[in-house]
Amino acid sequence: MRLLKRSPIKTLQRWTIGEKIPCTTLALRKFEGLFFNTLLFHSALHFMYTSIPSVQVSLHLYNSLTKKEEQFVPIKEGEVKMYTCGPTVYGRPHIGNYSSFLLADLLRRWLEVSGHTVTHVKNITDVGHLTGDTAADADGDDKIEKQALKEVRESKESKDAKEILSKDDVMAIVKKYSEQYIADEVALNFREPEHRPLATETIPEMIAMIETLVKKNHAYETDDGVYFDVTSFPDYGKLSGNTLDNLSAGSRIDINEKKKHPADFALWKKCVGANEHHILRWESPWGEGFPGWHVECSCMSDKFLGSPFDIHTGGEDLIFPHHECEVAQSQCSGSGKPHVNYWVHKRFIDMGDTKMSKSLGNVLTLPDIENMGFSPLDLRYYLLSVHYRTNLKFTQKGLEDGHKARRKIMEWMAEVDASGSAEENTDAQDEFATAMNSDLNTPAALATVFDLMSSSRNEGKLGACKAFVETVRATFGCFDSEEKEDIPQDVLDLAQKREEARQNKDFEASDSIRDQILTLGYEVKDTSEGQKIIKL
Known about the structure:
This protein has 536 residues and is α/β, with parallel strands linked by helices. It has three domains: 8-60 and 361-476, no CATH class; 72-346, Rossmann fold (3-Layer(aba) Sandwich), CATH 3.40.50; 489-535. The chain has helices spanning 8-12, 25-35, 38-48, 95-113, 143-156, 167-187, 203-215, 244-249, 293-305, 319-333, 366-371, 376-384, 396-418, 426-437, 442-458, 466-476, 489-503, 507-519, and strands at residues 60-63, 68-71, 79-84, 117-122, 219-221, 225-228, 265-270, 289-291, 309-315, 340-346, 349-351, 354-355, 392-393, 522-527, 530-535. Strands 4-3-9-10 form a four-stranded parallel sheet. It has a four-stranded antiparallel sheet with strand order 5-6-7-8. It is globular, with a radius of gyration of 26 Å.
């Protein structure tokens, strides 16, 4: 096979039938330099050995259900309905959570850039998510009530907090952490979904769905709840690979003699036995109780999007049991046909050799990132710089590299904004679209940006990049100008002294003062309009 001479991004996008692309050392060096940091290089290199069509006019997504990339075809032309599993609000979400939510925001943005109208639903779980959530039929404490007990105990210095815990205490936890979560999404420049339903606002729909499942012999009642009968749904396990045979061969399920099959999962928990003191409870045909976690998303998606709808997103940890159970409930309570056409899942963020997880105690929140001296949009860029189906190994060095790369791009965009208009560079637009349509290949899309940064400056064609810049801004959501921070007075004083030194041609003093400013976290650039002070 003969490789043509072409830019690194064009080499990345070269398409051959059934063949993978050899890559010369020279090409790799050019490609590595293009990215400014090894994090982006290795992420993009992962995709350099994947065949990508050079002309791909429509979006292709990896469907977790079919285990392959498929052309995305919306149910209704020009309109997309999408559901995202939001957080359980028992604490401030961590950056691993936001990485998953960011996938949905990126996908929404690209769909809109491509001309689609998107209806996006992102729920908030405020009841029924139990601590033993790695099993389909979770047990343990309600996560939110457990946190409420902890905080009430701390505030009232009572060891017997359960005796004084009220519904208001529980909902105060929901309100507190929901507000933190939404504030974080605003800081990260997420687009607001059309609907943010609470699980507790959808209880009548849940009861109705469970009644339907019972009537259709997909569910049954016991003395402690209502359970879904997994043997009534032959496709159980198709999404995750955890078929009943595989589950029976493993140790993922415990024996409960009240259930017909060990893998049956609760649709409704009665307030008896271990759940006798559950605070949030509702009347139902089966007595007082509360919904199981899985049925909540089935009902909220159906209420706001109907069935079927186009796309369901979430983190890979939700594939089993949560999404597997959603498939069973929704399909069996509805027409019997799939209720979602495309399942799209985000890979974990790793801290060292382990995934980032609250249960492991190795999480970082957005305030942690800001305390490290970074903008929320630096984090957004860093998370988007790696393909969503690649595990990002989070490091402070990687975040620092992301900060620098984002700043370089924004400086170039400012130059483009200030330049005169010219005939638009459509080749770059096409390359960027090809990358994004190739399963949201953000490393390849960023390679196009860096390639055009270099060529437009070298060739004096900044004015030909205006439409391209607007496309990139709208897609990535991290290159908009942030509100300018007040520069500390001591930095301003030093900058003034430096300017005076330059006027006196005392360049040694000028350089020394520049170094002092750098130690304070700022950089001085000399422009035709005078000194420009930039926060590092």
